[in-house]
Specification:
- This protein is α+β, with helices and mostly antiparallel strands.
- The chain has helices spanning 39-42, 47-60, 88-95, 208-229, 242-245, 250-262, 268-271, 317-333, 391-395, 399-409; strands at residues 3-4, 7-16, 19-25, 31-37, 69-71, 78-82, 101-102, 279-283, 296-304, 307-314, 345-348, 355-364, 370-378, 383-390.
- The strands form two sheets. Strands 1, 2, 3, 4, 5, 6 and 7 form a seven-stranded antiparallel beta sheet that branches. Strands 8-9-10-14-13-12-11 form a seven-stranded antiparallel beta sheet, with helices on both faces.
Length: 410
Amino acid sequence: MQSVGPYRFTHMLGICPVGKAWAAIDGQGRFVTVAVLDAAAANTPGWRESFAGIANSMSQMPDGLTFSYADFAAAEPWVAYPAEVGPGAEKLFQALGQECQPVPNEEDGKPSPISGLPQQVSGSPVSGTPQQVSGPPVSGAPQPTSGAGAPWAMQTTALPTVPSVEGWAHPPVAQPAPAVPPISTPSDPFDTSGETRITPVSRPSRNRTWLWVGAVVLAAVLAGGAGLLGGGALGGETPSDPSTSASPPLYEATQLSLNKAKFDAELAPIAEPWLPELGGCALDTEVGGPELPSGEKRHVFCRYLSLSVHFALYESPDKKDAARTHRQQMGVVNRALAPGLREAAKATGGASGAPGSYVEYAGNGHDGRPVCGVWWDRDDSATAVYFETPCAAGIAGNWDALRDVWKRTS
């Protein structure tokens, strides 16, 4: 009889393109369902990470599907669900975009029930040692985001495209939804044109002649009063307009000058709305600056209050599209980490008026705290900016705070 960890398989529930769903029993006689990822799929880049990431994400959702034990490092990774939660194994494969075909009983040809009599199952046992799973979602080997090390810098674990394996028909990347939806076509995710507006109240018409006479009388009174009170105290001079004479304080002016020097002609358009607010900007070519991520030609890291701000110039539009897609996938897989996260959409920059793509995403920081981020790239260049902050300490879980920053700096 096959087994994994403390569970002894009783019979197979279903066969999926990338694995199998089993009914099993533990040492105390409690029934479970176990999802086992085939070794061939586990050895295909992306599948092991997606299997682990989605199992953890589903367990953290409200009324989520909580598993008992799992071993994501086994040659054939597996997850065990108590029978009380229903067909947990099948639901996990469905979240991966895989439909399991039920296995009929040999006796009557009907699908096997979860709690039926134990049946002998042929085949080699599945290896692996169980582990109690707790804490943040398991998402593969973390890779820190480039930049000057914020303690909460987000882990941007790659969710690679899964290559085709002969005999399998599966999505390019497994997600809680069957696939990452394309960025929607509305011109602005924050458009309020459909909202009800207040109709201006028409004012009653007035006699223009009396208005003219009243204006003349008022001017005469003011002229006489000025002579009585001041006798020409203004000296005939016109006060200067503060809006035209004011200049930024010396420190802010110095920061602005330093910031401008960090951005060349290609990065300047997307960085320009940020320049008066940024501090501590560093180029990838500077000592102590950020590392240059794969696919980028230039990277500038800056600070704005609690935000970690990244400006990137990509080697090609395709490289930029791939980076955007990666963060869109993070928004789908990690939605439970940051309630209120919106779907990606085409948008118009609030400051530039330029068309582009807007993406909200989330992930776990190096210190385990959820991090919220916004990506923005313009259609007219191979550049992008993305900014991140701890979801709780940075914005108190309020996505509107990040959206406000985007409106003022896009």
